[in-house]
Amino acid sequence: PIVDSDKFPNLTAMNEELHGMGLKTGFYFNPCWCSVEWKVWPTGNTAKDAATVLDLGFDGVKIDGCGPANNMTLWGELLNASGRPLLIEDCLDKHWWVPGKEPPTPTVQLLRDCPSNFYRTTTDILASFYSIMGNLMTSAAFVKEHETADGPVSRPGCWAYPDMLQVGHEISLVESFTHFAAWCITSAPLILGCDLTNDTVYNEVYPIVTSPLALKVNQEWAGHEGGLAASAEDTFTTHAGTTTVTTFPVWQVWHKRLPAIGDRATGAVLLINLSEQPRNVTLTYSDADPRFGSTVTGTDVWTGEKVNLAAKSQAFSLAPHASRFLILQ
Fold first, then answer.
1. Could you tell me which residues come within 8 angstroms of residue 148 by beta carbon, excluding any fewer than 6 positions away?
2. pTM of the predicted model, to two decimals?
3. Closest CA to 183 of 147, 222, 146, 211
4. CA distance 292 to 257
5. pLDDT above 60 for 111
6. Contact 183, 160 (CB under 8 A)
């Protein structure tokens, strides 16, 4: 790889110093501005690149989709052969960048064999509520489309990733709560994209990204990554800060099964008001999860406090872009 030696005079020493602080480091490979000619597609200089990642002491690597080194099977073999734990991100559908060519490894096979630890399922996210919601919906649809009889394609060790978090980055505090909850309830990798050296931003997002119950929902596994449970029939169209999805339901309900506590079914639910007006959104427990009966107990994820819930269903008043994040039993 080409390295700016003025900014990074000694990458090995940098990694050693950061490791001494208890931190881990990653290298971004195969970017769109890669200067290698496309005649070397799809292998590029993968062998040398993989050796560089390992020799310099990095702990993770992102393989972008628009350079010439697009053979993820080869990347996985070379990186995993070291025996050293390494976090690998795959941008997945590389053939989009090479019109008329099939990917070196078919997507179905990549999802089955999973040479990476997590894989992108969407276009690049923007610091906009509707880009965030669009990526959430696109990722969920991708996972559902590729699910097989063998089980979900987003699973422990091989997670679907709708791109990095925009929490604290040019979106409102209300939107940050909704955004983080949405990534948690779909088991998405949680990678911060805000400036943690900004004290104002840090203090604002810290209670969100360190919430014990939100992280519990994200990390626990009961056989499914979580997905869309119910959606409004009423929709609206917007082009505000979104590049792919432009039509949205006015509200959604998301659900993720959690390990049962005793003999009681347990799950997380997230109600989102996607519209620009305040709305009442009704949660019907059996729609979220057929295992729920007419009587459930609820806990607010953010406060940890119990929530009084009526029989069979409960309506919640939500401000624009606001949400309600609960654990039900």
1. none
2. 0.94
3. 211
4. 11
5. yes
6. no
